[in-house]
Specification:
The protein has about 260 residues and is mostly helical. The protein contains 12 helices and 3 strands; from the N terminus they run αααβββααααααααα. A 3-stranded antiparallel beta sheet has the order 1-2-3, covered by helices on one side. A hairpin with a 3-residue loop joins strand 1 and strand 2.
Length: about 260
């Protein structure tokens, strides 16, 4: 142990901790299972270890084995964070894995770069709020919504997404978040029917909840199933499906309140 510290050679525990942290960060940032395995295997190999990785919806289990000494092995399990999509982190961690393999980066260099990547300041929540509102309003226009419909969808999205941001801040259950956000957004968009605004109120109502559709979990679930990670793919698919059900519940509840259930 003392010689390892003097030569700055990382122990198997340090390597396992680092690889587990990177795996969890990739998972919570929106990477699919095969990408996580490829990146972490690449980094483990550069340290002279063979890696087995099991990715689950709420946890990651990693086992690393020394190539030269099969008796030197370690297994770790760590709980993953809630999904917080950030493809910049996914891209930069993938680049870090390649740099680790190609440039033979040291443990300390990898650790410093990893901490720098995950600590980078995210885009302002207010800018995200505005851009998401513009994007959803653009969907409404793409579906031939008129000026009133597009305007309603913009403000409905802004209200629904703001509610989502606030509820996430207080760590409220994500199913409740999706139901509440869908309810508020569709309630505001449904006012086009109540006050007879424009000629396409139905497009406004249908478009108001599109910002909540869990596209990334759905795509990742299909990729995982295709690539043979059946359990993880099904878990992601069930989670995404439950979110879609919550969106439908929120939308239908607002339609009941507005008297639009027969549409």
């Amino acid at each position: 142990m003392e010689s390892d510290l003097k030569n700055n050679i990382p122990t198997i525990e340090q390597i396992a901790d680092l690889l587990t942290d990177i795996s969890c960060e990739l998972m919570s940032s929106g990477a699919h299972t095969m990408r996580i395995i490829q990146n972490i295997s690449r980094m483990a190999e550069s340290f002279g270890y063979i890696m087995d990785l099991s990715v689950f919806q709420l946890s990651i289990m990693i086992t690393i084995v020394n190539k030269d000494d099969k008796m030197q092995r370690l297994t770790q399990i760590k709980k993953t964070n809630h999904l917080k999509l950030n493809f910049t982190i996914v891209s930069e961690l993938s680049a870090l894995s390649w740099d680790t393999y190609d440039k033979k980066l040291s443990y300390d260099e990898i650790k410093i770069r990893f901490n720098k990547i995950v600590s980078e300041k995210r885009i302002s929540r207010w800018l995200v709020l505005f851009l998401v509102s513009c994007a959803n309003a653009s969907f409404c226009a793409l579906f031939k919504g008129d000026f009133y419909a597009v305007t309603l969808v913009f403000w409905a999205t802004m209200a629904g997404f703001f509610l989502r941001q606030e509820m996430i801040k207080y760590h409220i259950n994500h199913l409740v978040i999706f139901t509440s956000s869908a309810f508020l957004a569709s309630l505001i968009a449904g006012l086009g029917y109540v006050f007879h605004l424009g000629n396409t109120p139905e497009i406004a109502l249908a478009s108001s909840v599109l910002f909540l559709i869990p596209g990334v979990p759905l795509i990742n679930s299909i990729l995982d199933i295709i690539e043979g990670h059946i359990l993880t793919g099904i878990a992601r698919l069930v989670n995404a499906s439950s979110l879609i059900v919550c969106i439908a519940i929120g939308l239908f509840t607002s339609m009941l309140i507005l008297g639009l259930e027969k549409l």
